[in-house]
Amino acid sequence: MKKIFTFAALLCAAVTMNAEITAMTCAEAKEAALAIDRGNQESATGTDSVAVTGYVTNTNGSISRGQQTFWLDDVKGNVKTFQAYWCNIPEGEDPLNVGDKVTIKGFLMNYKGTTAEMKNGDTYILERVSVHLDTMKVSVCDAIEEGESLNDGAVSDDYFSVSGRVVSVDMTNDQYMQETFWMQCADNEKRFEAYYVTIQGSEFAEIGDSVLVLGKLTNFANASGNVIEIANGKAWIIEKGEKQATPRVSVAQALEIGQALEQGEKTDGMYLIEGYVDSISSAYSDQYKNISFFMTDDMTAPTFDLEVYRGKFNTDIPVGTKVYVLGQIQRYYKAADPEKELEEVDKVQISNGTVYLNDPQGIENVQNTKVQSTKVIENGQVVIIRNGVRYNALGAKIEK
User: Fold this and answer.
1) What's the pLDDT at 9?
2) What is the value of pTM for the model shown?
3) CATH homologous superfamily for 135-240?
4) DSSP state, 397?
5) Can you give the pLDDT at residue 132?
């Protein structure tokens, strides 16, 4: 009750200080937003600040970087009248739930003439509903099956705690301790994404770690297909994977490994690739501290087959520089699109790898403890040792 009174008082104070703020119901806000002239633009924003009050009727249940997206209506239920798009949640507050009563303050937006919304507004919580969090505990395989039953873009009503092992890491954010990684169903090799989840601890998950991810399932649809994911949830590291020495390979060896993969597949483990920068494919970004370039073993015979995509580094790198790149090897594939006159793309790539100018010694790679798999270089060739059995880079068993 004390917390409700506090935020109600803050709202009153904010409205009193600015007499220009117009109070609106959700229905009024929708009508006013859709009346904003967009011209030829995708969206248009009003010029007057408003305060819209209503009940939360739909939300993914997650806060990301202090913001949350949810829908409002003038009465409790499931009608989505007005959207609060990534609005600011008071610091220290739990995510909003369906049934909460709030006021959002900001500017109305007409998005595509179909959606009335407020973007990045400030949220004032007036009433909280009593919520019993019933969490469904599932494996990665079960989570994917459950997510595939949802319509495109739909979010589950229930919360799920999904347990599995990390097979790939796409992104880490030190400031917010958020990470994007993938888990995989062993039965059918379908993948499940933990998208921008907040790590509950002081270190990020690595390949091979056993993790638990909590949140609502989403059937995310894009041009490349559907992805089953939990977005902006929470994640815990249950068991760290076993660390082993990271294999060191040349550009030619990295290409051999990548070309042996299925289209779009990444290696389970990390590699340290040594070579030279022979061409810049995307200039250094001072904002994101990364650069994209192609690598070669011999500057007199560049191949343009192995690309380091958005390699992490803190300054520009000239062509001809010798570098060491740590990351997963991926066979990057994109089908041809005749309608857009785009040709097929099939190349080997290191995405978001770490770039070094000096040889980094003693790097360790986290391996899956359930499947004892080690990659080594013997007589200049890649040898994969999995559960005591030896294979070459193409996956063929090496007979004794």
Assistant:
1) 47
2) 0.54
3) Nucleic acid-binding proteins (2.40.50.140)
4) B
5) 58
